[in-house]
Amino acid sequence: KAGVTQTPRYLIKTRGQQVTLSCSPISGHRSVSWYQQTPGQGLQFLFEYFSETQRNKGNFPGRFSGRQFSNSRSEMNVSTLELGDSALYLCASSFEGGGNQPQHFGDGTRLSIL
Amino acid sequence: AQSVTQPDIHITVSEGASLELRCNYSYGATPYLFWYVQSPGQGLQLLLKYFSGDTLVQGINGFEAEFKRSQSSFNLRKTSVHWSDAAEYFCAVGAGTAGNKLTFGGGTRVLVKP
Question: Across the interface, do A103 and B46 touch by the CB < 8 Å criterion?
């Protein structure tokens, strides 16, 4: 069974640009969550999608957005990039949306802002 | 609001020695607790989880963790460390039935001496 796939693995952008990251969950999983990992702030929850609806949202500005498609694949978008957005962005999927469901993580997309 | 504290930022242990990583959580109800491991350049791999029942939980690769409600702790242990256990370890608490939102501790980096 294939794991969580994130594309691209690496991305370099400049300030002011926008970026879209993609996540394909494990087959059959309907919940997709996104996390930002930085050396200073650690792992922080961005948002969760379940059955194409955003169900939870972390404390990030509106520049960070996401969506989920009918096949459970998810994308997150960051507009007007800032230097502080440089981070490893991790996607995680689980079968359903209860807090007791273990989440399976992809290898992440490393975003660097110049 | 839920929170997780991992008091040790770095731990160095000799190969073959025992290892214990500390985790303290703050959560208003019965917590869903997880331990994840992250190797450089990779995503998070689930080691074990606690939802209810037996407070001693067995995980993969010889890891175990003990849930102690009175101490709000969920410490991770391994009796004999292997060089391949060198990685960063994260403790996390789940949001309960309100969906998938993990709150992570700051992580403990484990170095293994030969």
Answer: yes
Q: In this structure, what DSSP letter does residue A80 have?
A: S
How far off is chain A from B32, nearest CA to CA, in Å?
A: 6
- In chain B, the largest separation of any two C-alpha atoms, in whole Å, equals 45
Residue with tokens 């502080």: A84
Q: State whether residue A5 sits within 8 Å of chain B by CB.
A: no
Token output for A69: 């498609």
Residues of B with CB below 8 A from A58's CB?
A: 101
Among all chains, which residue has been given the structure tokens 């794991």?
A3
**Does residue B41 surpass a pLDDT of 90?**
no
Q: Which of A4, A42, A48 sits opposite B100 (nearest CB)?
A: A48
pLDDT tens, residue by residue, A57-101: 999 999 999 999 999 999 999 999 999 999 999 999 998 766 667
- Over 80: is that where the pLDDT of B28 sits? no
The structure tokens listed for B110 are: 């484990």
The answer to whether residue A36 scores a pLDDT higher than 70 is yes
Tell me the C-alpha distance between A107 and B92, whole Å. 18
Pairing of strands A64-68, A74-78: antiparallel
Residue predicted with more confidence, A86 or B29:
A86
